[in-house]
């Protein structure tokens, strides 16, 4: 099926209402362009692959993402292992950890082929569970850690095929009942149907029209852009991202998010269940996961979109939005001890521009658990901010991605890590890492989840522990110069994952129990572990998935920092 380029996304929809300020545009793009191209030109020294942990354990210092970057003859981060010999096995002078060997085996078993070409990995290969539901599909978000593992191992084709296949799916007309979805929506997942009689393969995609709850995956398009950059960085081959199809794919995704409407905030308004947490969990509004991914996708697109034709205007919109978004997030989503105290003493019903309590948050709405949970040292981006509503829950994915994308200032990044270390038992416990903290229970659980029996307290999305998050934690640890923290988490996971058959999630306050309805042989649990291992072994891999702080986006935080 060809990706027929019908028409370019209408640029009037994307009028971001900015005054054109070319100087501010260049201040950001130049920086990233330099960062991007400079890395591709640096000659690669093989010896650099063997960076010891100590090299990046300067505690308290943010790691320079590109400080160990180097390229292969192809021009990317490069890899020397053969296709069948995973780098994390072949390069190791010591015996590979048995869990690593088993993980590669499982990852290979999960591969999905379309007309003979690998195009992705299924969500789970759990043969013991009778009903596959949609776990036999390739999920866009689930494939990201698989893709990173393959890229780190020098297996580029499957990632390229995946990017192209999902791009073709994006151009499908999507309908739920009689309602047509936006052109740019990327699928949540797709399934390859093999007809052995006719010897044909066909694809069935889901954009939310079959999903439980009928929610479109807002995160898919962002992950797609982030993965396109990771592929480009890893291979050094920018010809893919420069194709008209990829350029249009990015423009379509972003035009969905940058269009003008009734918004008074630069954050993205979403419905519940639109991301990794894909069931009703009270994350509707402006969930942190989406805001961090949105920010990261914007920054990735900034270095990939060509400044030609409509691309020029889009780039200007991106720059304007990045400034507003980082200001909003760093100011209003950030919470530490001092800020909690400020909110605790808020006056309400303030009108006009001089209001301190801009969103009219009522101090009585601060939940009791937060006063004990908040350490003197540390902070985090809270789950959601909207009128009179602050969701104070801590979410792992959003906070880790905020560090990787440099949405968090360097100080905030360190504070997020401080909090994880200070609240290790609550957030990591015996299995990294809680998707969110704390769990909701009782009447609150009833009203927030709609009595969801899968999301009971300390299970699944409601305070369950997800091994896939290990790769994000590891990447955040390396970026903040704390690889020893990642090592501690990986050691914990290594004790159980293989033995337990790679569960999707664990339950309980400490994450000790294999999840109630957890799948086994969940691919992203496998891939997340491999990526964490490979990143710790060779921290230069971080460059694929992390962005340096953009000095053009000024830190705006006015409040005192958590460590002063
Ligand atoms: C669950 C998760 C979702 C994931 C899917 C496939 O629905 O909540 O994030 O993509 O399973 O693994």
Describe the structure.
This protein has 19 helices and 13 strands. It is an alpha+beta fold and 564 residues long. A hairpin with a 4-residue loop joins strand 6 and strand 7. Helix 4 (140-152) runs parallel beside helix 19 (523-537), helix 13 (396-404) packs antiparallel against helix 14 and helix 17 (469-479) packs parallel to helix 19. Mean pLDDT is 85; it is low at 1-13, 17-61, 66-75, 79-85 and 557-564. Alpha-D-glucopyranose binds at residues 123, 139, 141-142, 276, 278.
What are its keywords?
564 residues, alpha+beta, four-stranded antiparallel β-sheet, three-stranded antiparallel β-sheet, 41% helix, 9% strand, disordered N terminus, disordered C terminus, binds alpha-D-glucopyranose
What's the arrangement of strands in the largest beta sheet?
8-9-10-11
Strand content: 5-15%
Mean pLDDT equals 85
Distance between the termini: 58 Å
Q: Which stretches of 5+ consecutive residues score pLDDT under 50?
A: 1-13, 17-61, 66-75, 79-85, 557-564
SS-based class: alpha+beta
- Main pleated sheet: 4 strands, antiparallel
**Rg on CA atoms, Å:** 22 Å
The count of strands amounts to: 13
Helix content: 40-55%
The oligomeric status of these chains comes to single chain
Choose one word for the global shape: globular
Which small compounds were modeled alongside the protein? alpha-D-glucopyranose
The number of helical runs is 19
């Amino acid at each position: 099926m060809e990706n027929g380029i019908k028409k370019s996304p209408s640029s009037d929809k994307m009028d971001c209402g900015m005054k054109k300020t070319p100087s501010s545009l260049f201040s950001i793009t130049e920086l990233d362009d330099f960062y991007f191209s400079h890395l591709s030109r640096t000659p690669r020294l093989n010896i650099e692959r063997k960076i010891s942990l100590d090299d990046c354990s300067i505690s308290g210092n943010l790691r320079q993402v590109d400080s160990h970057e180097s390229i292969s003859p192809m021009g990317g981060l490069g890899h020397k292992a053969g296709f069948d010999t995973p780098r994390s096995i072949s390069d190791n002078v010591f015996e590979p950890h048995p869990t690593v060997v088993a993980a590669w085996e499982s990852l290979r078993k999960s591969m999905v082929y379309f007309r003979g070409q690998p195009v992705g990995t299924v969500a789970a290969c759990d043969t013991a569970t009778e009903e596959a539901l949609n776990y036999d599909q390739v999920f866009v978000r689930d494939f990201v850690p698989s893709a990173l593992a393959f890229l780190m191992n020098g297996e580029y084709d499957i990632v390229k095929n995946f990017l192209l296949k999902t791009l073709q799916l994006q151009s499908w007309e999507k309908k739920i009942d009689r309602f047509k979805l936006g052109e740019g929506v990327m699928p949540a997942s797709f399934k390859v149907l093999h007809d052995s009689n006719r010897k044909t393969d066909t694809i069935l995609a889901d954009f939310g029209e079959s999903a439980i709850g009928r929610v479109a995956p807002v995160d898919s398009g962002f992950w797609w852009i982030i993965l396109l950059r990771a592929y480009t960085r890893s291979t050094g081959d920018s010809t893919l991202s420069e194709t008209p199809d990829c350029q249009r794919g990015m423009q379509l995704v972003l035009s969905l998010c940058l269009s003008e409407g009734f918004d008074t905030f630069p954050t993205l308004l979403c419905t519940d269940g639109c991301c990794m947490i894909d069931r009703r969990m009270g994350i509707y509004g402006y969930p942190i996961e989406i805001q961090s991914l949105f920010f990261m996708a914007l920054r990735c697109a900034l270095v990939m979109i060509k400044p030609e034709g409509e691309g020029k205007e889009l780039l200007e919109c991106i720059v304007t939005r990045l400034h507003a978004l980082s200001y909003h997030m760093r100011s209003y989503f950030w919470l530490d001890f001092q800020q909690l105290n400020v909110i605790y003493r808020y006056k309400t019903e303030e009108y006009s521009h001089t209001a301190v309590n801009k969103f009219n948050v009522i101090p009585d709405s601060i939940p009791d658990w937060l006063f004990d949970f908040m350490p003197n040292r540390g902070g985090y981006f809270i789950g959601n901010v909207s009128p009179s509503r602050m969701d104070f829950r801590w979410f792992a994915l959003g906070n880790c991605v905020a560090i990787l994308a440099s949405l968090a200032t360097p100080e905030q990044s360190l504070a997020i890590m401080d909090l994880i270390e200070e609240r290790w038992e609550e957030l990591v416990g015996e299995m990294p890492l809680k998707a969110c903290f704390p769990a909701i229970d009782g009447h609150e659980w009833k009203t927030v989840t709609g009595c969801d029996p899968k999301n009971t307290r300390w299970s699944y999305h409601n305070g369950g522990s997800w091994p896939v998050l290990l790769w994000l934690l590891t990447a955040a640890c390396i970026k903040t110069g704390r690889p020893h923290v990642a090592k501690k988490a990986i050691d914990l996971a290594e004790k159980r994952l293989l033995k337990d058959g790679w569960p999707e999630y664990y339950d309980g306050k400490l994450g000790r129990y294999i999840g109630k309805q957890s799948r086994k042989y969940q691919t992203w649990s496998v891939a997340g572990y491999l990526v964490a291992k490979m990143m710790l072994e060779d921290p230069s891999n971080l460059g694929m998935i992390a962005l340096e702080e953009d000095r053009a986006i000024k830190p705006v935080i006015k409040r005192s920092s958590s460590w002063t």
